[in-house]
Amino acid sequence: MNRRESSTNVLKEYINELAENKLAGRFLSFSSFQIFYALYLISKKTIARAKIAEQLNVGEGTVRTILSRLIKDDLVKTSNVGCMLTVEGSHVCRELEKVFPRHSEFPRTELTPSAFNYTFVIRNGSDKVSSGIEQRDKAITVGAKSALVINFIRGRLRINSVSDEIGKTFPTVARQILEDFKPEENDAIVIASGETALKAMHGAFAASWSLLGDQGH
Q: CA–CA separation, 97 vs 100, rounded Å?
């Protein structure tokens, strides 16, 4: 295992533990996605707890517990104006950005016909992809409708066992992926679709998280 893989596994285990830690004698398990998304929202700007709950589509009690865990681990601090990252929280978010250098909503296209689609780029993720079925199943398990994994190998966008170069069959989609996400050699690009924007994002995260190695949800 190289140093990057080791660091990535440690990061994944840490986020998973945050999602499953005991708090005040109770065991309340959340998803790693909720921890990730809460940190992501807070990293963008100081944000109110109610707004985080709205974005995660959870109740005030749930988001209060999630934030309690992040505060307990010195990742987040709060003030009268809202929640913000600590120095350690900023460090964790930078490490997550190394693993997922880009992620955002993706439009409806001939390859992604759903109204809601979300994309994650996974740095050096192509080596972990077999047929992509495992990633699709991970996405569907958390509520997405579908997911596909595209690999960037030798300057080409490929879908294993489907197409050696999607630029030939879907040139407009391929051009948009290259322009918007700027993948590097051996990156994987996951695109998940869902009935809502949140389900599409959750599905894309779950599929991407599975490419980092061990168990995660």
A: 5
